[in-house]
Amino acid sequence: MSNGSPVLVNPSRMMGVQVETMNEFTLRTDQDSYRNDEISQALLESLVQRLQRDDLDFLVLEPCEPIRGNAYIQVLGSFVVETRQLNEDGTFTQYSTIIDDGGEVLAMLLNYWEHGEAPLTDHWKDITKSLNKRDSVSVFDRIRHFLHSGKTPEQVPVDEAVSRGRRR
Q: Does a structural domain hold residue 25?
């Protein structure tokens, strides 16, 4: 399968029936995962509604083969939509936008899944640098790492700590 492969569209999509595509997809949420043969317009519609109600934290629609370099679309609560474009040099560019309308989010997901149309990111924010570990390691990330690394500070009884402080 090559990038940009055409997608076979099944006119029964309007009835919520699964569409046959040449690219296989995986759909994941924080609660479940769906194979391509389980994905339908009705499922996508239901998941977008659940995101809108905050019953889900996220969903990720990912083709097995990138679509013209596009690796996935993910939607977070409050319709923060992100997509990753794979670059020829092995790097990637991550874009993000906020969409207010659940219908627009659904249409974007359907176009991606049914027609292999990646979203146009011309007016989206490039968030790639915020994903770079060196640039985004915050104090809280360092604390979290320390707390979960199994390392603990030396345990010193209070009386001993006070006496050590007096000796300095």
A: yes
